Predict the 3D structure of the following.
Amino acid sequence: MTRRTTTAHGGLTAAPGGLTFLKTATALQTLTLFFQAVTAGMLLTSPHGYLMHDVGSKVMYAAAMLYVLAAILAWRPGGASPRPILYATGFLLLALAQVALGIAHLPSFHVPLGAVMFALSTLALVQALSPRLLPRSTARS
C-alpha cells in the first residue's frame, strides 16, 4: 500500500518514495545528457569518442524512458501531480528526435537540440530538487 499524507489544508501529497525515484531519474537523465556533451567533444579529438557517444546515446534514451516510468509511478500510486508525466513524455520525444538526427548525421540540428535538452533537463532537476514553499489546497475555504 502506498503512503499518502494529508496536508494542513486537507490536500493529499505524494509519498516520499515515489518522489525520490522521480528525482533520481531526473538526475540520471541530466547526467547522461552531460556525458553526451562531453563525448560529443571527444568525437573531435579521440578515436574512442564515437563509441562512447554511441553507447551514451543508448543510455540517455533509456534514462528518458526511466524518467517517464518514474513520473507515472510518482503520480498514480504515489499521488503526485501528473505534470511531470508531460515533461517526461516530451523529453522522450526529444530523445527520439535526437537519436534520429544523430543517425542521419545532421549535426546542425543534432548539436543544438542536445544543448536544449541538457538545459531543459537541468531546469527539471532544479525544479524537482527545490523545496515547495506551500502545499496547494485542493478545496477552497
User: Anything to note?
Assistant: Confidence is low (pLDDT under 50) at residues 1-15. The CA atoms of residues 98 and 113 lie 7 Å apart. The longest helix spans residues 16-45.
